[in-house]
Amino acid sequence: MQLPLRIAMVSAECAPFAKTGGLADVAAALSRILWKRGHEVRLFVPLYGKVERSGLETDPYLSPFPLSFPGWDVPVSVRKAPLPDSENADGVPLQVEFIHSPELFGREEFYTNDDDEPIRWAAFCRAAIEACQRTGWAPDVFHANDWHAGLLPLLLKSTYAWDELLRGSSTLLSIHNLGYQGVFSEDAIRRIGLGGVRDQFHQERLAAGAVNYLETGILHASWLSTVSDTYAREIQTPEYGHGLQGLLAQREDHLAGIVNGVDYGEWNPSTDPHLPAHFGPDDLLGKRTCRDALLDELGVAPEPSGPVLGIVSRLTHQKGFELIPDFAERLLDHHDVRLLILGSGDPEQESYFRWLRDRYPAKVGVHIGYDNGLAHRIEAGSDLFLMPSRYEPCGLNQMYSLKYGTVPLVRSTGGLADTVERLEDGRGTGFTFYEHTSVAFEDTLAHALEVWRDPKAWQQMQLRGMAKDFSWEVQVDRYEDLYAAIMADLQLA
Ligand code: ADP
Ligand code: GLC
Q1: What is the mean pLDDT of residues 152-175?
Q2: In a 10 Å sphere around its CB, with 0-12 CB exposed, 13-18 middle and 19+ buried, how is residue 450 labelled?
Q3: Which residues touch 159 (CB under 8 Å, ≥6 apart)?
Q4: Does residue 26 have its Cβ closer than 6 Å to ligand 1?
Q5: In sequence order, what are the residues at sequence separation of 6 or more whose Cβ sits closer than 8 angstroms to the Cβ of residue 160?
Q6: What does the alpha-carbon distance between residue 138 and residue 167 come to, in Å, rounded to a whole number?
Q7: Cis bond upstream, residue 307 (ω within 30)
Q8: CA dihedral over 418, 420, 424, 425, signed as positive or negative
Q9: What is the 3-state secondary structure (H, E, C) of 105-150?
Q10: CB 290 within 8 A of CB 381
Q11: Reading across the β-sheet that carries 40-46, which strands appear in turn?
């Protein structure tokens, strides 16, 4: 491989600065490892109102520049802050480049229903492209993530087609979640200044009065990827394609599936600063301490004879927790288990879990909200981790669970199918079910409770899981190969 590659990572989220889900972890960790391997990486993220300002350079390294939209200019600058733990061989950290526009991004929420939402994300893509232009830096690949960066490939081919500098730049669009596509009224095309290339958008969609940013990216990116092999196949089917299956199937030759890695610097029970005790495969004692402390922290009764079941999740339709009410009371009436939930999202699910806690205060602990430290402690202090997802492009929590000796119980779909091996004949790392029904979920839980009664079998399963290595050091090779393939394609063209 030719070194170094020049990669411009364009992502709406980046841990620890701006995170609502796994995209933040992945954008940060992939950029970090590429940088550490000696590649030139630039990572662009919006500067939201919520981003902690203390580590930011006070002066923008580029003087403010205007982005012009029809009848409207918006000033943008770029401010840098070092990405934690990202020092390369020369001791230089990767600088995250924050797109600073108080007018567009200085809001509490990252994603809004405000009228200018389509403009915000067009502006984000343009600002990232212009930051490259204005520093005379031509990426080999613009790596755009999710619908927020979906317009970038078309913008390069249209608004910035004049620029020789960027002529050798290819584009990769990574789909982290097909459930979010960025669909707006077709009037957005004029408002973002792309009225001259209306013919480059999906015409049936336009005829229906809409524009879809993710779909536009799928049409125009040099290559596509998604975050597991199974999800790459699933999204070409009506069940998982969210209406884009036809288009994705047409681009199958340019669609790669690469399972996300785990940042074991951040998620490691032997060093995790969020835990009251540390542990590892050679000594699981500390896990016991973490479990006791967790039950205390969430205010449930100590010393259950059954397992502690943990959930850390966005509470959305995707994650499949609607199955739980069908059997929760039966489970809690008949078994001395604990159910611990950290999450937020759908108000109905939030209030259901609160109701369940009020009904079983000694057995159910609920924290509605976002709490990174508690997420780590639930991973460490639980025995079983529940992910009954309807669909799951990759999923990170099941991989964290494996590392923390917490056995995942998952619906076998997407990345969950690729990372959790079903317990069978004394092999396997977790419990899996396929049909998305409460019966299948409850049966699988019953199986887990049965295995729990055999501590030796349980511990062996824990240890098999802890031995798995999903580190980015392994997964990054596949990205390097993909970038190289994308660049080779361009040379052939
Ligand atoms: P998704 O991106 O679909 O939400 P992933 O499993 O890929 O799912 O990633 C979720 C990430 O967000 C994990 O790092 C998880 O720990 C974190 N997370 C989700 N909900 C919360 C919460 N309420 N508090 C803290 N961390 C959370
Ligand atoms: C998405 C998916 C999740 C994936 C994450 C990072 O939000 O829902 O499965 O792990 O992105 O790729």
Answers
A1: 97
A2: exposed
A3: 126, 193, 194
A4: no
A5: 129, 133, 166
A6: 8
A7: no
A8: positive
A9: HCCCCCCCCCCCHHHHHHHHHHHHHHHHHHCCCCCCEEEEECHHHC
A10: yes
A11: 62-69, 72-82, 95-100, 40-46, 6-10, 141-145, 170-175, 223-226, 255-257
pLDDT of residue 367: 98
Q: Where are the alpha helices (DSSP H) in 360-471?
A: 372-381, 397-403, 414-419, 438-452, 455-466
Q: Which residues line ligand 2 (CB under 6 A)?
A: 21-23, 26, 176-177, 227, 260, 392-396, 415
Ligand nearest to the CA of 397: 1
Q: Which helix (H) or strand (E) holds 367?
A: strand 364-368
Q: What is the pLDDT of residues 426-452, one digit of tens each?
A: 999 999 999 999 999 999 999 999 999
Q: Which of the listed residues 31, 242, 319, 396 should we mutate to test ligand 2's pocket, taking the one with most ligand atoms within 8 A of CB?
A: 396
Q: How far apart are CA 480 and CA 171, in angstroms?
A: 14
Residue nearest to atom 3 of ligand 2 (CA): 395
3-state SS, residue 193: coil
The alpha carbon dihedral of 372, 438, 324, 450 has a sign of negative
- Cα distances from 85 to residues 12, 31, 96, 97, 273, in angstroms, run 20, 12, 12, 16, 15
223's CB contacts (< 8 A; 6+ apart) are 170, 171, 172, 173, 254, 255, 256, 482, 485, 486, 489
Question: Residue for token digits 């408002």?
Answer: 191
Residue that has been written with the tokens 């979906």 in this structure: 150
Backbone angles phi, psi at 278, to 5 degrees: -105, 160
Q: In what helix (H) or strand (E) does residue 295 lie, and over which residues does it extend?
A: helix 285-297
Whether the predicted model's global pTM rises above the 0.85 cut: yes
- Count of other CB atoms within 10 angstroms of residue 260: 25
Beta-strand (E) ranges in 221-264?
223-226, 255-257
* Mutational pocket test of ligand 2: of 177, 319, 401, the residue with most ligand atoms within 8 Å of the beta carbon: 177
Q: What pLDDT digit, counting tens, does each position of 113-127 carry?
A: 999 999 999 999 999
b (16+ CB within 10 A) / e for 266-297? bbbbeebeebebbbbeeeeebbebbbebbbeb
Q: Is-contact 412 430, C-beta < 8 A?
A: no
Instruction: Tell me how far apart the alpha carbons of residues 79 and 352 are, in angstroms, rounded to a whole number.
Output: 42
Q: Where are the alpha helices (DSSP H) in 188-282?
A: 188-191, 203-207, 213-220, 229-234, 245-250
pLDDT at 267 over 90: yes
Residue nearest to atom 5 of ligand 2 (CA): 22
